[in-house]
# Entry
Amino acid sequence: MYRENILDHYKHPRNRGKIEHADSSAHDLNPLCGDEITYYLKFESGKVSEIKFEGSACAICLASASMLTEEVKDKKLEEARTYGKEALLSTVGIDPGPTRLKCALLPLKVFKLALYKHLGKKITEEDEKLV
Amino acid sequence: MLNPEKIRADFPILSRKFKGKRLAYLDNAATTQKPVQVLQAMDEFYRNHNANPHRGAYTLISEATDLYESARRNIAHFIGAKPEEVIFTRNATESLNLVAFVACQEAKPGARILLTQMEHHSNIVPWQLAAKRLRLKIRYAKMRSNGTLCMEDMPKEFEGEPFIFSFTHVSNVLGTINNAAKLIRLARKAGSLVCIDAAQSVPHMPVDVRELGCDFLAFSGHKMLGPAGIGVLYMRKELQETLPPFLGGGDMIKSVSFEESEWNSPPYKYEAGTPNVAGAVGLSAAVDYLKTAGMQKIAAHEQKLADYCRKELSHLPKIRFHGPRNGAGIVSFNIGRIHAHDVGQFADEDGIAIRTGHHCAQPLMKLLGEPATARASFYLYNTQEEADKLAASMKRAAKTLG
Ligand SMILES: Cc1ncc(COP(=O)(O)O)c(C=O)c1O
# Structure
């Protein structure tokens, strides 16, 4: 479970911190284990131009949150919107098993919350399948 | 002294291998494993004696009734109660809901309930439900940062003259053993009824309800080698006669007409519907097993393992223990900034089962300032070697993630 790439992102998280005057942000937690993630986003020319996160969570969740920032940065809004769990899990590169799946996917959920807030759209059932 | 290696031979699951390693089961505060004696007793009931007790005249019924009632007598004797004071429920949670429901029923709006800050959700939420329904007030007696109740402040907590005081005998998160005798004296002085959540005490140490002098005491079978789905509520007989019923249905009535019903006598008044006879039989076999091992010896064995485990873990840099040192067989900890989930995952990869999370005590976790902790909890079949295994695994976790 704790492979090189996970430990690397856990110990040296990319894009960790806060963006003052972010265009959008969102926060959520996993009540069962207390994992917490916040994303801050900035947009420019229809793209995710900047993304940072803060959080207190387990290694799987933090590594996934860090990898997600690299994945979606500079993506067009539509690409970011359709970025789904298969893509994230294959980047994370492990099968977290049923008990840790929520840890790995919490960042994606929070990112989507922030993105949809910016788009001014409601998350539909179709969109939910992506997270 | 207990011989855990010999005891282990009675527990089939403990010889299972996980990832090639012998299972070290250190989550006994959540639930316990079952010896063959319990499995056989239940199997024998369903194979040869199954019938619906108290409901007819044929031989099987009298066999099932005898087994059910002798289980009740055995369990009552184990906790120093009269048989009619032992009410079978599903678990400690249902027992506590029963108490909260019937004891609050006649309380006036504004009447007070006293709990403590170290309760399990199952000794908080039922009271909150009753408080909301009947407009009662709940107060939580304070806990110190070392995980013990502020005994000096306790007389003050009783100043509002709560009509009932419900507290945990042993904390499932911290292992704190509360001074029940002293707490009950204070409660009596204030004229309060006393309810004890004994989910973590009855399985692990000698408990005698007469000696304690409580009104209600709740525990679960599955936490003491018995099956899931059977629990106990001890309720003083006089209270059973005066308090209203909980669930209505078959067996809890003496007579029913279309207009009204008359309640059955204790304890049947509180046992509505077909009971879990196999569960009671299994729990009775578990009680026999525990009695043979000896409750004093079990308590001493667990305490020794917990002390040893704490000592071995204390070599880790940045380890934080929660709860007092002289507690029950529970070791609750965090290592630096490493999330408890990761700690639990490392243990799992080494074939060790420990609990990680908030342990159904979110208000307490908030006081501790930890979103989650890791917890090792011991029982009669655990060994020093298992504590060593845990320490080695935690060392690896600290090195990799610290
Ligand atoms: C202190 C305490 N009270 C109550 C309970 C509830 O037990 P059950 O889930 O068996 O009803 C537990 C179990 O975790 C506990 O540790």
